[in-house]
Write a structure and sequence with these properties.
The protein has helices spanning about 20-30, 45-55, 60-70, 75-85, 105-110, 110-120, 165-170; strands at about 95-100, 135-140, 150-155, 155-160. By secondary structure, it is of the alpha+beta class. The radius of gyration is 18 Å and the shape is elongated. Bound molecules: FE2/S2 (inorganic) cluster.
Length: about 180
C-alpha cells in the first residue's frame, strides 16, 4: 500500500459514546457499516449531513470536530469536505435553503436569470438569508439533474425546468 492509499487515522482521546446522541450515532454507524473498518473516512459526507440536519441546517466547528473524533479522522480532513461541498453550511441558515444550480447546463437554460430574479425580488444575494428569514439563498454547482435544467434544490427536493414564476410559487409556499 502506498502512502497515498493509506487510510486516514488519528488517535482521539474522546469516548465515542459521549459524542452526539444515540440516534445520531446509530445513523452514522449505519453508514460506517457499509465500509471496511479502516476506511471510516468513507462515511464523512453522510455523517456531516446527519449532524447538519440535526443542528438546524449548519455545522459548527465543534460539530465538525466531533465528526472527526467519531470517525477517527484528523479535523482538517473533515473541514476540507465541509468547506468544499455546497451542501454544507458553516454559518447559521434559515429553515429553508433555495439552491440554484449555476453549472453549465443550468446556465445555458436560464439559471442566471433565476438568480438575478431572486436577488432583485427578494433582495438577497447568494450566501445570504432574506431579511424576513424565510430562506437562505445559495448558488450551487451541478446537482446532477442537468437534463431538466434549470434545476433548483429546496430542502431535499429537486425542482426542474423552472421559470421565475414557478420558482416564485415555490418560494411563496415555504412556511
Ligand atoms: S448543470 Fe445544473 S444540474 Fe447539472
Amino acid at each position: 500500500m502506498s502512502f497515498r492509499d493509506a487510510p486516514l487515522a488519528v488517535i482521539h482521546d474522546r469516548d465515542r459514546a459521549t459524542l452526539f446522541n444515540a440516534e445520531i450515532r446509530a445513523a452514522i454507524d449505519a453508514h460506517l457499516a457499509k465500509y471496511p473498518s479502516e476506511w471510516k473516512q468513507s462515511a464523512v459526507m453522510p455523517a456531516l449531513t446527519i449532524v447538519q440536519d440535526d443542528n438546524g441546517g449548519w455545522l459548527t466547528r465543534e460539530l465538525m470536530d466531533d465528526v472527526a473524533a467519531y470517525l477517527d479522522l484528523p479535523e482538517v480532513a473533515v473541514y476540507e469536505v465541509a468547506s468544499f461541498y455546497g451542501m454544507y453550511d458553516l454559518k447559521p441558515t434559515a429553515k429553508h435553503k433555495v439552491c440554484i444550480c449555476n453549472s453549465i447546463s443550468c446556465m445555458l437554460n436560464g439559471s442566471e436569470d433565476l438568480i438575478h430574479h431572486v436577488e432583485h425580488k427578494y433582495q438577497v444575494k447568494p450566501g445570504e438569508t432574506t431579511a424576513d428569514g424565510r430562506f437562505t439563498f445559495k448558488e450551487v454547482e451541478c446537482l446532477g439533474a442537468c437534463r431538466d435544467a434549470p434545476v433548483v434544490l429546496i430542502g431535499k427536493t429537486f425542482h426542474e425546468k423552472l421559470s421565475a414564476a414557478s420558482l416564485d410559487t415555490l418560494i411563496e409556499g415555504l412556511e
